[in-house]
């Protein structure tokens, strides 16, 4: 536990959580000032008030860090009570209508390249359209979520499964453990920027909600520009978070592309030369991880590295 404390003072923590916490504090102070609450605070020396302010902001930032998973889940649209949950049906309808035909055409192109069917004509800008859909949606309708943020994350989650047969969710903490320090740092920086924009969006939303609650309580509307600015900042930050989620996703995909061989080695496996065999291996690895499948673990014997196989047989 105490080994994690230095991370609460590093650059990524400051960018991803401390600065947004300061924004929340500034927003709430502005709201309380508008309603006259700050006049009731006791007078303190400048140094004392500064120290208290920094401590409160740091405390808010730790709370943000603790709530980070729940905030991301909400933005992705997971909770059953999510206000946009009803939009999931529309998103899946849109996926089936607009994206499935593109994915089917992609498969036809591959089949034609393999000589299974006759050559097919591709529409103008097909590659651009395909890349846009793949970056913003998963591969199946049942994985579609009600929010754009959620579908971008689903897209990066399914990448390693579609290409290599490796389920990203159980594999990611294991893969991250074998990444070189430089790659871990790049991922941490990308994630801290994503957290920054997400939490700034939260700061705008919190400021707006508190302002509205006080308006209802006090029955007055002072400094009406406060919620306008807060909502604008929240919306702009959310859009920036979408862009950063795509960039972070590229980093995650790169980690699977470049270092899955290191993960296989640490698991005592030899990466097959044939793509179909590799897909089969990672599929069994995923089943072993998710379902603690002893049967899948035994199937992996055919992929054991020579030294590992010799150790087991001995």
Secondary structure elements and pairings:
Layout: H1 11-34, H2 46-76, H3 87-113, H4 126-136, H5 148-164, H6 168-178, H7 181-218, H8 225-266, H9 275-291, H10 294-299, H11 306-313
Helix pairs in contact: 1-2, 1-7, 2-7, 3-4, 5-8, 6-8, 7-8
The total count of helices amounts to 11
Shape: globular
Low-pLDDT residue spans: 1-6, 309-314
Succession of helices and strands: HHHHHHHHHHH
Tell me the strand percentage band: under 5%
User: What can be said about the biggest beta sheet?
Assistant: none
The helix fraction, in percent, is over 70%
Number of strands: 0
Helix/strand/pairing category: mainly alpha
Radius of gyration, in Å, reads 25 Å
Distance between the termini: 40 Å
Mean pLDDT: 91
Task: Give a nutshell description of this structure.
With 314 residues, the protein is mainly α.
Description:
The protein is an all-alpha fold. Among the domains are: 149 residues, no CATH class; 48 residues, no CATH class. Helices cover 74% and strands 0% of the residues. The chain is built from eleven helices and no strands. α5 runs parallel beside α8. The chain is globular, with a radius of gyration of 25 Å. The protein starts with 10 loop residues before the first helix and ends with a helix. The N terminus and C terminus are likely disordered.
Task: List its traits.
single chain; 314 residues; mainly alpha; disordered N terminus; disordered C terminus
């Amino acid at each position: 536990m105490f080994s994690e404390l230095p991370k609460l003072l590093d650059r990524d923590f400051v960018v991803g959580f401390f600065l947004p916490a300061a924004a929340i504090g500034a927003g709430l102070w502005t709201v309380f000032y508008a309603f006259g609450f700050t006049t009731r605070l006791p007078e303190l020396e400048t140094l004392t008030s500064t120290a208290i302010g920094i401590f409160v902001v740091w405390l808010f930032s730790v709370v943000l860090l603790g709530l980070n998973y729940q905030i991301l889940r909400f933005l992705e649209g997971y909770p059953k009570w999510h206000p946009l949950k009803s939009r999931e049906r529309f998103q899946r309808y849109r996926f089936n209508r607009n994206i499935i035909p593109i994915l089917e055409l992609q498969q036809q192109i591959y089949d034609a390249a393999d000589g299974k069917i006759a050559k097919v004509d591709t529409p103008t800008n097909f590659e651009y359209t395909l890349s846009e859909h793949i970056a913003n949606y998963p591969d199946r309708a049942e994985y579609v979520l009600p929010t754009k943020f959620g579908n971008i994350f689903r897209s990066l989650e399914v990448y390693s499964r579609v290409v290599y047969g490796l389920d990203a969710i159980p594999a990611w903490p294991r893969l991250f453990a074998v990444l070189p320090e430089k790659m871990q740092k790049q991922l941490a920086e990308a994630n801290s920027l994503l957290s920054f924009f997400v939490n700034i969006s939260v700061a705008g939303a919190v400021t707006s909600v508190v302002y509205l609650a006080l308006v209802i309580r006090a029955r007055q509307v002072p400094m009406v520009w406060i919620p306008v600015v807060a909502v604008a900042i929240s919306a702009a930050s959310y859009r920036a978070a979408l862009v950063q989620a795509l960039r972070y996703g590229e980093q995650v995909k790169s980690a699977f592309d470049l270092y899955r061989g290191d993960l296989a080695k640490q698991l005592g496996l030899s990466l097959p030369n044939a793509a179909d065999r590799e897909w089969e291996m990672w599929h069994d690895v995923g089943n072993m991880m998710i379902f603690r499948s002893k049967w899948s673990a035994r199937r992996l014997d055919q992929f054991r590295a020579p030294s590992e196989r010799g150790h087991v047989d001995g």
